[in-house]
């Protein structure tokens, strides 16, 4: 088990990095934009960063780690949130490796409960199956989080932080919807920038 | 004089489009990203759109108009704000033409008072001088706006809206800083996405 970061208190303006990928053509060869959005808590956008990963490649962990470590916002960041653990198709982030590289707790959020049997089947057809499957498993157990009392639940996996603290941060930063604002906005930006015709904005 | 749009009341969640350009190498040949950010008033980011214009070209008015008209957010938009009137170097937006094309009032914001003598001199060295100079003049008089009582003033030009209403909208949407949030965020996104090495994020 990895050591967990402890937060003495969760500041309302805690700097959160939310990461999502852009729209792309499944199974096409090519690079997909990965967008990182720095938020102060759930309110203010402080910065944007970008990298690119291969469709169905195996470079997401390294590319995302470099993007974070090279960012001028790195020293202010306290948490990294990922919109799911697979980017650009099946380019899987190894959440434990990412945690070790950037030394920040990782929270993975999905709107639907991940179906690991389906994911495993899809990965079996790809090279580096073992590496990808290990990455999928790196994020630990899936926990249901009810952000708003009467809203739909979301699903969370965590590395380097206790479930209780992660839940608290997810709740506090989900200001506009039932997912953390940094992830909601990362999704809008990544989708809005898609570079192929007819999909120039969402 | 163009007809001005009248707002019966300015809703706190008025949909504002803020437009800025990315970082680029001055006088280099090439295309520069133009980013449009849809905000609900000064609080929530609702959408992102993108187009590209030529460095020192003359296509900014048409490209920005198409980006707006083709956006799924177009019907919700009430105001277009530009971060200055020149994009990608001296690709000048003709604010009156833009107003006519998109049928939305235009507010141009600058942090410093525009120096038209200097701009005229710079334009004189470029092709299509007359067209560019006419575009510069299309935005009308520069008005000083003091957004926060004790803050630095900013400068505004308007087309299709009264100065009083434009000032009110600028003040209400400048939540985080002394410029409207849609423009502050458009700047962060456009700069953060710059595609040349070493400038991948700000």
Quick tags:
globular; disordered C terminus; 6 helices; 202 residues; homodimer; archaeoglobus fulgidus dsm 4304 fold
Describe the structure.
- 2 copies of one chain form a homodimer.
- By secondary structure, chain A is of the alpha+beta class.
- Chain A has one domain (15-192): archaeoglobus fulgidus dsm 4304 superfamily (archaeoglobus fulgidus dsm 4304 fold).
- Chain A is 29% helix and 25% strand.
- Chain A contains 6 helices and 9 strands.
- Chain A has a 7-stranded mixed sheet with strand order 3-2-1-4-7-9-8, sandwiched between helices. In chain A, strands 5-6 form a two-stranded antiparallel ribbon.
- In chain A, β5 and β6 form a beta hairpin.
- In chain A, α1 (60-69) packs parallel to α2 (95-102) and α3 (116-124) runs antiparallel to α4.
- The longest helix of chain A has 12 residues, at 181-192.
- The radius of gyration of chain A is 16 Å and the shape is globular.
- The termini of chain A are far apart.
- Mean pLDDT of chain A is 91; it is low at 196-202.
- The A-B interface holds A 35-36, 44-51, 67, 70-73, 176, 185, 188-189, 191-193, 200-202 and B 35-36, 44-51, 67, 70-73, 176, 185, 188-189, 191-193, 200-202.
């Amino acid at each position: 088990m990895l050591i967990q970061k402890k937060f003495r208190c969760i500041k309302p303006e805690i700097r959160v990095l939310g990461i999502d990928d852009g729209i792309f053509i499944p199974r096409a060869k090519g690079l997909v934009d990965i967008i990182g959005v720095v938020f102060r808590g759930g309110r203010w956008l402080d910065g944007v960063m970008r990298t690119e990963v291969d469709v169905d490649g195996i470079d997401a962990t390294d590319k995302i780690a470099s993007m974070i470590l090279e960012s001028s916002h790195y020293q202010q960041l306290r948490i990294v949130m990922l919109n799911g653990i697979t980017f650009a198709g099946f380019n899987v982030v190894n959440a434990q490796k990412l945690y070790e590289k950037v030394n920040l707790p990782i929270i993975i959020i999905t709107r639907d409960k991940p179906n690991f049997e389906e994911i495993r089947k899809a990965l079996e057809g790809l090279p580096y199956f073992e590496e990808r499957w290990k990455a999928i498993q790196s994020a630990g157990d899936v926990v249901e989080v009810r952000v708003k009392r009467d809203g739909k639940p979301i699903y969370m996996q965590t590395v380097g932080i206790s479930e209780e603290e992660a839940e608290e941060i997810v709740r506090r930063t989900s200001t506009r919807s039932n997912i953390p604002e940094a992830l909601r906005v990362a999704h809008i930006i990544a989708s809005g920038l898609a570079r192929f015709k007819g999909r120039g904005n969402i």
